[in-house]
Amino acid sequence: MDLSIREKVGQRIVAGFPGTTIDSELEDFIRTYKIGNFILFKENIVNATQLSNLCEGLQQLTKKYTGHRAFITIDQEGGMVTRLSEDSVNIPGAMAIAATKDENNAYLAGKVTGQQLRTLGFNFDLAPVADINSNMDNPVIGVRSYGDEPEQVAKYCVAMMKGLTDGGVLASAKHFPGHGDTNVDSHLGLPQVHKSLEEMKQCELVSFKALIDAGIPAIMSSHIIFPALEESLPATMSKKIITGLLKETLGFKGLVISDCMEMSAIKKYYGSIEGIKHAIEAGVDLIFVSHTMSVAREASDVLTSMYEKGELSMDDMDASIHKIMYYKDKYLCNENGKHDTNEFDVKAGIEFSKELLKKSFTPIQMPSSKLPVVDHNSLFFGCTPFRATNVSNSEEGAFHFANYMAKYFHGNGILTSPQPTEEEMEALIQPMKEASTVVIASYNAHLYKEQLKLIELAAESNVNVIVFALRNPYDLKDLPANVYGIAAYEYTMKSVEALAEYMKQPYELGGKLPVKM
Q1: pLDDT at 342 (0 to 100)
Q2: So which residues are the catalytic ones?
């Protein structure tokens, strides 16, 4: 393929940028650096119409300045990691879907997501999450995983991948070789997993192997050190893990993509540019620089110079370019009309997503078959959906459970902090005693344990207490005997609305917990 070195490097970069429109700086960036691919986040999105125009503009500029269409990627996992606006389909997350106990729901969720993304102009979804959530204290995966049983995760992942593929987009499994057994978030620090390869074959690698066998087109690497495989470098930067384990041992022939090279696990401990050089040498095909154009510019300059001097293998470069172009030809050519975007019914997709969420609600502890009455004398409290991890969206907190429920039931709503203080708890005792029913939203209370103390205090103060776990169900592990505990898996407007409807007219909940507690 007759591309200059600069053009080849541009095809290897997936860049993020600020803003919701294409300005002169972004156009200059694409023109000068021949950037061939993009990632969009919630801050790039206003609504479906704006997003569709943005994606179309990116494609036109990329084709104009590089001669090829762009991969336009997004983290549309579902649940707590969704980027699309409310006028688009946002499916429930992995653990919620697994709670429905029907892997066909993972296929349908994948298909509707693929169709929705394709309609908006995306062609590459950074999902499914193939991590086995084997560590309850994992701060970053949790509900993003289909559970803690490797075979179950594998089945649901393969179903989701097939759905995304049939919906018309590339799927990418993450985070190889597994982010499920960490208690550090790689957005913030550098996790280590101390397991032997044999142990990983029994757990972490099961889902990735199933996905490779099923033909997954792309796999994302993790910024985690696995000392048994590579002592000093995270997987993204390790040739032993990317080329040795993933490509040679597991036989993966598709695109290897990096997690964002601006995450602290890379930036803080190695430097983003140093990390990128190592990732290229390790065998990563697509390098994600998800936020800062200046970092992508520097990466392009450094890599171009290294290839020109012969410091990086041009044979490896050409193999990567060949792979990238193969998948662009396969997924980005709309001429065959296979994915007619006009046929996608957004309203039906939103309704399907809502019904799926209701099917996922899981009763963990129900002291009696009848839910306490929730009315205008009820007290609602809980914190806002703070960023439990940097992969969450930055403005989560624009609405909160207590406020919404207080308005819905004309009751009393009190916003609490993620780690309620003694003073906060003290101030809540009297209102809790006076309420007909106390309704609490927990959010990662198994990690923010002051929330658990508040639940215990509520149970002492009132006989009628309901707790909804709005992220990880582990919050409900050791509830006082009189407390109703229900796992809802996500803290979104959609889930809070559905829970309000449930309390107004209770029905039998059908979800089954996909993890051990």
Answers
A1: 59
A2: 259
